[in-house]
Amino acid sequence: MSKQQRAKLVVGNWKMHGRLAANATLLQAVAQGSGELPADVRVGVCVPGVYLAQTQALLEGSRVEWGVQDVSAFTHGAYTGEVAAPMVTDFGAMLAIVGHSERRAYHRESAELVAVKTQRALEAGLTPIVCVGETLEEREAGSTEQVVGAQLDEVLAKLSAQEAARLVVAYEPVWAIGTGKSATAEQAQAVHAFLRARLAAKGAADVPLLYGGSVKPENAEELFRQPDIDGGLIGGASLKDQDFLAICRAAAVTSVAG
Ligand code: 13P
């Protein structure tokens, strides 16, 4: 499938932000604003799990997809504090971020654990958004491809081609997350092309590949115009309805219908 045939996807990762009142305003604005986008632009939000019921109530019937930022590697059991993928689907959720660099760094999630979480998400019928990305030290050492390739391979090794085709993969360079310093469109495209080739070798060439890391209304269009960038995973800018919707519109103008 050529770039022109792949839909765009923009997903907000709220991280640990939001309270009931502010969420309501944001969700309603996103639901309303997304109604004006062309059909080949998908929009999603990944919220803190405690707000899934609220999110379902406010987004059901809209075109916005929703989900969580992590799932347990277990289906159920004595795992205090964990939330299992089937619990998430009880609230109509479709998406689950797995392997975000903040979880890899602050919760010591290994590539192996991320792969198991991806399997649990798939089994529950969720679309896993598998995050990969290198640190600044790794980039400067010239090992970006080695790092992101190994992170992706660990996941792909556990999946069939059919399962791999159900993934979304997000390239999020750690040095670009929350820093205001996005990767350039050329830097991001180079890594995306590398990841696309890995996915193609697995028989999953059409997996949506999102870029994440300081995406803003000002830089989104240039990033989304790259042939292997199918959209974005948006942190800080997803908390402001006008910014998030502007990024969605940037996806729209770079989509087929746009
Ligand atoms: P920022 O957009 O705040 O840089 O965060 C990116 C990110 O980590 C999304 O998952």
TrEMBL record:
Listed pathway(s): Carbohydrate degradation; glycolysis; D-glyceraldehyde 3-phosphate from glycerone phosphate: step 1/1; Carbohydrate biosynthesis; gluconeogenesis; Carbohydrate metabolism; erythritol degradation
Gene Ontology CC terms: cytosol
UniProt organism field: Paraburkholderia susongensis
GO BP field: gluconeogenesis; glyceraldehyde-3-phosphate biosynthetic process; glycerol catabolic process; glycolytic process
NCBIfam families tied to this protein: tim
Protein name: Triosephosphate isomerase
Assigned EC number: 5.3.1.1
Entry annotation: catalytic residues: 100, 172
Functional summary from the UniProt entry: Involved in the gluconeogenesis. Catalyzes stereospecifically the conversion of dihydroxyacetone phosphate (DHAP) to D-glyceraldehyde-3-phosphate (G3P).
Pfam family of the protein (one): TIM
Compartment list: Cytoplasm
Reactions performed catalytically: D-glyceraldehyde 3-phosphate = dihydroxyacetone phosphate
Gene name for this UniProt entry: tpiA
Family statement: Belongs to the triosephosphate isomerase family.
Binding site for substrate: 13-15, 178, 214, 235-236
Listed GO MF terms: triose-phosphate isomerase activity
UniProt keyword Hydrolase present: no
